[in-house]
């Protein structure tokens, strides 16, 4: 009996089976690395082989490390399961549901964990601070190993934050602010280092840009990021095009990841095809490498065991599923993650806001008049066709873009609830709700523009210079 896997395997889902195989594989590697007795290693290997057989019987697929069963992937060479109309990959988000992506299904498909009340309360106890409204409202809704981060923090063990931005245009939009606003809060309440990756190399590979233009966009986007209020003594911002040539630690980690991920795996995870350039195929390793503290020896004094926490939108999760699979095999801790929902386009939650369509976007460079015009003209309404019907039946906050945006940017919980009740009852009309959003966004963006004016090229250079931060490791 000791050599056979648990008898309840038939009750496990394909994803649970995949995770059991992955865990057992890590156990076998640990036993071998620790030079455990041969009979103990042999028993663990037999269990691993039995689990792999159960996995193949259940899914019809051979187990591949880092590649969950295909019918559970939303990233699948451009297609999704027929009965599930959501499509999510690192570049595209689409759904036919006016309410947006079904995030509960996404948690199941990606194999992450829901951020529940218990976890939010634990964050509050650990930090002594009221949870950010992004947590309270479920805007950051999913995680990987946040409990592990808190375990370490409560035992005086530090971690660091890593987030990023792909600089595809000179101007960022309000949706781009979400991870940075939340990351800034995390940095302040936990008092930890932060690294921000600008993937100008990625944009060169995917867009019709020169390397010079991609790097220029990186520096311009850095100004918007700095204007969020990050502490220069605790934050390092870097361009891949710039930093890769000066950091052997960063490049070594890229190489290690590249060695442990196959072409078939990246094809399965990211949907690459044989006609994609080899730069795209190798790029995921570049986004993975900042997850390891040895990529920043100037900050962490060469230490390799500092765990990383990555706040990001959930469309970036495929990069870090791959990273978490590789990490134990190269002797690194797995990065933990906090996932946010997508920021919807003005036309509706069927897709995320995209800078390629100016009418779907409110840019951080927009004037008060442009903000007002875009919201009034393009923001999808959950109101009724006539005022009479709206007064009688009320509006639908679940599909109304103005209300969605207010959940992101209106910090007053009581005011938000009042607006929801008033709009749902029909007391508040669509035009009135849009007016509240306009009056919320105009001063927020104007204040950001004022802070950005104070960001000089010299400040950008200081933030982007590799250096020791205000922490001792």
From TrEMBL:
Listed PROSITE patterns: AA_TRNA_LIGASE_I, WHEP_TRS_1, WHEP_TRS_2
Gene Ontology cellular component annotations, sorted alphabetically: cytoplasm
A molecular function GO annotation: tryptophan-tRNA ligase activity
Domain of life: Eukaryota
EC code: 6.1.1.2
GO BP term (any one): tryptophanyl-tRNA aminoacylation
Annotated SMART domains: WHEP-TRS
CDD domains in the cross-refs: TrpRS_core, WEPRS_RNA
Record keywords, A-Z: Aminoacyl-tRNA synthetase, ATP-binding, Ligase, Nucleotide-binding, Phosphoprotein, Protein biosynthesis
Location of the WHEP-TRS domain: 13-69
Family listed: Belongs to the class-I aminoacyl-tRNA synthetase family.
PANTHER family with a match to the protein in the record: TRYPTOPHAN--TRNA LIGASE, CYTOPLASMIC (PTHR10055:SF1), TRYPTOPHANYL-TRNA SYNTHETASE (PTHR10055)
Protein name per UniProt: Tryptophan--tRNA ligase, cytoplasmic
